[in-house]
Design goal:
Shape: globular
CATH topology: Arc Repressor Mutant, subunit A
CATH architecture: Orthogonal Bundle
Strand order of the largest sheet: 3-5-4
Structural class: alpha+beta
Helix content: 40-55%
Number of helices: 7
Oligomer: single chain
Strand content: 15-25%
Number of strands: 5
CATH superfamily: Winged helix-like DNA-binding domain superfamily/Winged helix DNA-binding domain
Largest sheet: 3 strands, antiparallel
Number of domains: 1
Length: about 160
């Protein structure tokens, strides 16, 4: 997905069911559209704090704010609100507001957001395989070989 300065994307408005055209955010205006531009644009859409995790959880289906918050317990309500707004503005998330008391708002992946599924799953696979490289051991699952790998590593570690 290459976005040039002044280009537009289609997204649902936060306040209506109509499609609105919005200008690409300023953060996309600096792309020079060299061969790596589309990679930078794609990463730019999910590089915000918690965005990729939010998108990953929305792969399972429609969720309300509180449900997302429970699945991502370390995110503050303000940060979650801001990230959901940006994901909606970028056309990756659809927000549906129900006219009822108390208010009910649901978030789901838009077709564009759903198209990121293979990317998110690849990131999860890579992260699961390499998390231990960054100081956080991967939780051992019986039969996955991680317990043997951990004991082999500790035997070979310098004293």
């Amino acid at each position: 997905m290459a976005l040039a300065s002044g280009s537009s994307i289609r997204t649902k408005s936060a306040y209506s069911d109509q499609k609105d055209t919005v200008m690409a955010k300023a953060r996309f205006s600096r792309f020079d559209c060299s061969p790596g531009c589309s990679v930078e644009a794609a990463v730019g859409l999910i590089d915000g704090k918690w965005k990729s995790v939010i998108l990953f959880h929305l792969l399972s289906g429609t969720l309300r704010f509180g449900e997302i918050r429970r699945q991502v317990p370390n995110v503050t309500p303000r940060t979650l609100t801001n990230q959901l707004r940006e994901l909606e503005e970028d056309g990756l998330v659809d927000r549906k507001v129900y006219a009822q008391v108390p208010p009910k708002v649901e978030y789901s992946l838009s077709p564009l957001g759903r198209s990121m599924e293979p990317i998110l799953l690849a990131l999860k696979t890579w992260g699961d395989a390499n998390l231990n490289l960054y100081g956080k051991p991967r939780p051992a699952v019986a039969g996955d070989g991680s317990d043997e790998a951990a004991s082999a590593t500790s035997r070979n570690a310098p004293a």
